[in-house]
Amino acid sequence: MARIKDVAAHAGVSVATVSRVLNDHPSVTDDTRRRVHDAMAALNYVPNAVARSLRTTATRTLGLIIGDILNPFFTELARSVEDEARREGFTVVMGNADERADEQDHYVRTLLEQRVDGLLICPTAELTPLVQQLAEAGAPLVFLDRTIDGLDVPCVRSDGSAAITELVKHLHEQGHRHIALASGPSTLSTGRERTRAFTDALSAAGLTAPPEYVRYGDFREGSGRSITAELLDLPTPPDAIFFGDNLMTLGGLEEIRARKLRIPRDVAVASFDDVTWFRHIEPPITAIAQPTAEMGRRAVQLLLRRVRHQPAPSAVLPARLVIRQSCQRKGIMR
Amino acid sequence: MARIKDVAAHAGVSVATVSRVLNDHPSVTDDTRRRVHDAMAALNYVPNAVARSLRTTATRTLGLIIGDILNPFFTELARSVEDEARREGFTVVMGNADERADEQDHYVRTLLEQRVDGLLICPTAELTPLVQQLAEAGAPLVFLDRTIDGLDVPCVRSDGSAAITELVKHLHEQGHRHIALASGPSTLSTGRERTRAFTDALSAAGLTAPPEYVRYGDFREGSGRSITAELLDLPTPPDAIFFGDNLMTLGGLEEIRARKLRIPRDVAVASFDDVTWFRHIEPPITAIAQPTAEMGRRAVQLLLRRVRHQPAPSAVLPARLVIRQSCQRKGIMR
DNA sequence: GCTGCCGATGTAATCGATTACATGATCGGG
DNA sequence: CCCGATCATGTAATCGATTACATCGGCAGC
Lengths: 334, 334
Description:
about 15% strand; alpha/beta; homodimer; elongated
């Protein structure tokens, strides 16, 4: 593969000049510039980013570690991160932590070895020593979707509290009194936050949440299903279930379908996270939509500010309730 | 950030020895090895993959360019590619071509600059000069999901012909006689192939496919919707529509729902690509499932063979029909 | 016509690893 | 007791770019 030296020889100039053309430095004659370009074309020259990065200590690359690549929420997030990074001239290297701390750390290490300019992490439950050390060393790090308390790392996330309050009000208005929660893990900030907002909203509505109505899963399909089974097997099963994310909702729907129960007549369903197909299932699912694309964009901007040593304040974006038919009780129209 | 030189100094050895420890070369005393490890730990040493790659001309990185990151088919593909690559000790850098040739070429260029060891491409419609040139130069390239005729590039894809034949038979058995196709672009091998298999199967079943029943979209939601509208507006609208991928199906469902038509009573629906939520919508959608995960794994293995200069034969994996209720006409059970 | 400056280009050091080759110590056999 | 083999380690060249500094030619100003 052609190197800068070959281009220089072919164009009859020095490597410095070729490099100047590559980085369009002003002090190069139009004529020389053209000759160099011709040489590059003739040799199919592709600059070696590895060599360049070694010299400049910048890779124009960002790392992104997401929680679970099979979760459409993260996919959408990844997409918007990708787009925004690309707009800024950065490449994104993505790692899928699969919600496991060891996988997360593996990717952190690999990405550090690759010398990414900055790192975007949706942190897993446990704070690992590696991440802690990075945070304390002031590495260009931004958390996305989830925070970890006590670390001075800027974070972009959405706040669902208001939407959850609204949702509980909606359920109450629709006559639901036995409302259960299939939440995400209490070890994740998102899990905790949604749980608290939910129980608070319940008390505010004059309802209580008996402990057996609040259960913790892992933001994946399986736990959604098993929690739903447990809830429906209770002496007094709930008449409404709020799921902590879209995958748990999917699991819950499986179980409800398997039991041949009708939504919302037998049990109402609502979900944190809105995904396209919620509109298409029968009945369409009431959900809380996060501003996913905006979160991705903000996160990239924040990270780039960190990379450039500018102040980078955390951002919290509100989620919003999208009412469909899965909680409707009065006047069911079908 | 600590360099190999610092580790060497700290451990009282030469850089060569540290490098040997890093690459676990056998001829290093256990004692020295320990001292070096201690030094690395003390200094929080992270080897610089950029420098290493420059020297070794290998990055242990693969590039993956997918058609559309919002399409769950590609997401699942990406996931399995990622997993398999990781298993082999490679990192994947992914680019989203968004079904556009210029975006695809942008990523090809970036990935070449980054000197990925191999490139996995789901090629867009047009063969670009860049890709052609790479193929002809014998670059370590593997096509995934789609081929481009006349290029000597190994390819991993699925073959839906048999499943499509089965589907048409199923539709015929269910009494459908006016079967339309909302296909993908005829510029893509997958689009063409599915179209041909479909029309062939139709003739085999003794049915004809009038030209107005065969329409081409772009594998995205919008075209699925508009084609469905066109089909339903025909003087003799079809009583069954087969969509070329899951996103076009999504668009079709939108339109059918908007017109308040019932599936399958008013119009039957089947989809190429199976996605989780097809099971959950009402009625569950009959679909042709591709062995997505297997395709990803095979593609990585094939690419690695190319990287290692071993023979790399193309692979074609059969897709299979999953019958649900969206085409059922006789004895609808609900 | 000379001086000094500026703009275009070249020379060579450098980034952080790997690795061929050199070196020096140790040890066994004759 | 000496020689050569073997093993652990060190020295220095190298990968392909960037860039500080040097150089050179030309032109404006006096």
